[in-house]
Amino acid sequence: MLTPLLFASDHAAKPATPPPAAKPAAAPPAAKPSALGEAKHAEAKPAPPAKAATPHKKAQVRHAARASGRDVVNVSDSHGGGGHGAGPQLDPDDILQELKQGNKRFVSGRSMHPRMSLARLRETSSGGQHPFACILSCADSRVPPETVFDQGVGDLFTVRVAGNVANNDEIASLDYAIEHLNVPVVVVMGHTACGAVTAVVNEDRVPTSIAQLVKHIGEAVLRTRRYNPSLKGKDLVEESVRVNVWESVEDMLRGSEMIAARVRTGMLRVAGAVYHIDTGEVEWLGSYPGSLSILR
Ligand SMILES: [Zn+2]
Question: Which CATH class is domain 33-294?
Fold first, then answer.
């Protein structure tokens, strides 16, 4: 059986590779694989969000949901945080819960397709966008974030690129959403049978134009092979997908001091996930495991 890579209580699978925290960040020494347990505890109790919703605010949101007869917390309707940090933010826990509930609706065939009306278009057109979560995911046509999380127009700030890598352009896009739109949650989501990861695992010939993608994914595959030398074929691809999620998280944290600072102070939550293209389920990997090292 594979050993646990990550820690969050809500992840179901038990990936094989130790935490991807060995590469030196701009600041501090990297964590060792033995720090896994320590990282697990740290993840479970992140720093208190500096701008998180107050209990009163959360109660208001839940009350509003009940009053409207909805069985979900409508995070978007209550998210007043606009550009330049103008409004209150929701608790990242509530946002992740909404994404999980949305995915459950999608998987069970009970999608609500919320906030897709013409009125919503007018609202977001005149009032600007106030997305409550960023999703960095693969460009694969089988992985549409708004659909798999059952969210609507203006809800998710999605950045999609083959292999869900975090390169300069992707990081810049996330920077905009996090700093300007004040988005408090980032989900980096890989997916099963990812063609980009598979190509790197198989060492397929790829166009030179996507060398940067290969470079980032290659780091993840290398790390996977190092810690799991016995993995082959599909198993190697699937584990590399998981490691590649954390590779992107690390690249994002290294590439943006603003993002790292917000994670460090609890203003921003970064979660990893893998989407299963055959079932529609999102497997939650938890929050970034190396946060104790790379963010210090
Ligand atoms: Zn893919």
Answer: alpha beta
